[in-house]
Amino acid sequence: MADSINGIWCGQDGQRTEILYEEVKLSDGTEVYGDYDRHHYVFKMPPHGEWAGATVDLVLGSEDVVFARYISESGEELLSEPEKWTRCQSTVS
Prior knowledge:
Layout: E1 7-10, E2 16-20, E3 23-25, E4 31-37, E5 40-44, E6 55-62, E7 65-71, E8 83-87
Antiparallel strand pairs: 1-2, 1-8, 2-3, 3-4, 4-5, 5-6, 6-7, 7-8
């Protein structure tokens, strides 16, 4: 198991999410807070955007992979299977 879920994660659609302990910064710059442990993080999406109001449940799969589940306010899974995000690669200029 990887050391920690902290870091910057990239979705397949170009979105970026930064996790630093209890704080998450979404692609649009919105900051939200949730329940953190080293290999798992749960937070609620803000009331705007694609996943408005959904609970996001992130589980670290490896050092460079996290799996995201999106759960509606009624408890329904919003995707048929977890979405795979990868740790963003650093760019040096």
